[in-house]
Amino acid sequence: MGALALAISGGACASLSKVDTSTLETTKLELPIKGLPLEFDRYRIGFISDIHLGPFVANSLLEATVDLVNQHHADLLLLGGDFINLPMILENLNFWYVRNNDFSDPTDRTLIYRIYDTLGRILSQAQCPDGIYSVYGNHDRWFAPRTCAERFKHHRIGLLVNHTVNIKRNRKELQIIGVDDYWSGNPSLPQNMAPKTSRQTRILLAHNPDYISKVLTGTNFEFDLGLAGHTHGGQICMPFIGSLLHNVQDRRFSAGLFQHEKAAVYTTRGIGVVEIPLRLNCPPEVCLFTLRVA
Predict the structure, then answer these.
(1) Comparing C-alpha atoms, which of 219, 207, 199, 233 is closest to residue 263?
(2) Are strands 200-205 and 225-228 parallel, antiparallel or unpaired?
(3) How far apart are CA 111 and CA 161, in angstroms?
(4) Are residues 111 and 82 in contact, defined by beta-carbon separation less than 8 angstroms?
(5) Cβ distance 56 to 84 under 8 Å?
(6) 201 burial class (0-12, 13-18, 19+ CB within 10 angstroms)?
(7) CA angle at residue 179 from 177 to 184, to 5 degrees?
(8) Position 13 pLDDT exceeds 70
(9) What pLDDT does residue 23 have?
């Protein structure tokens, strides 16, 4: 009887599960921000993270992502890091789940260069008048960060390493504060930054939401919206149970929107995959946000 119940349960889980790494889910949200200058009301932001371009992520998935950003007529595109994935066991996989033959040869000495160049070429097709800005993830710090920076610069994608970009409308500002990776870099907030005024709205862009949690709980730094990735939303989510692995200490920021008393924080599920080259009940996500006056 126990074995029968287990079999029925397993069958039910299978029927409720969706294994998918190529069907993009679009998350469209209006984000009310207290004190948002009227000049930035209805301002549109595309946000994607954890592309992990490599043998398990097809170029076409990234191209479809950029198409969605363009269809949304985003004013700005923000990238949350982890652009690359080179599995250490690639040579032992026999390519049973390779999705991208362009990047499936581990003996190719130009492989990392070509991945970052392809990333830059495709991402730069986003038609965002206020530009494209990114931060490092841990995988980018692990795999040739200078190549990432050089190729992104070539394709006019800003890489923010503890740096701020100000987008201006009249005398009002949208400040994008991008920090280095929490695990593998040296993230820090801008030094000697003046207190936030009513003319400013601040977005803190970090790969790992644990850094945003650290800022919220351990500093007096003011910002309005935090954007992060890293968690993949769990990537493997079991029916009735959810994610088995969270990859984040502060689980309030595991996935989706969390309204902290100090700021809103959104953690995206990202685009690509790592470790296990599958997603279960956790589809790739493209975020399309519209800022609104609260």
Answers:
(1) 219
(2) parallel
(3) 24
(4) no
(5) no
(6) buried
(7) 170
(8) no
(9) 82
Q: Where are the alpha helices (DSSP H) in 111-222?
A: 111-123, 138-142, 145-154, 209-218
Residue 136's SS3 state is: coil
- Write the CB contacts of 36 (distance below 8 Å, at least 6 apart in sequence): 201, 224, 291, 292, 293, 294
Q: What are the backbone angles phi and psi of residue 14, rounded to the nearest 5°?
A: -65, -40
Q: CB atoms < 10 A from the CB of 1, how many?
A: 5
Percent of the chain with pLDDT over 70: 89
Question: 190-202: per-residue pLDDT in tens?
Answer: 888 888 999 999 9
Helix (H, G, I), strand (E, B), or coil: what is residue 267?
Answer: strand
* CA dist., res. 181 & res. 165, Å (int): 18
pLDDT at 9: 32
Cβ atoms within 10 Å of 253's Cβ, excluding its own: 25
pLDDT at residue 211, rounded to an integer = 98
For the chain, give the mean pLDDT.
89
Q: How far apart are the C-alpha atoms of 170 and 185, rounded to whole Å?
A: 35
Contacts for 60 with CB less than 8 Å, ≥ 6 apart: none
Q: How far apart are CA 146 and CA 153, in angstroms?
A: 10
Using alpha carbons, list the distances in angstroms from residue 159 to 178, 179, 237: 8, 10, 32
Domains recognised in the chain with CATH numbers:
33-293 (3.60.21.10)
> CA-CA distance, 286 to 66, in Å (whole number)?
9
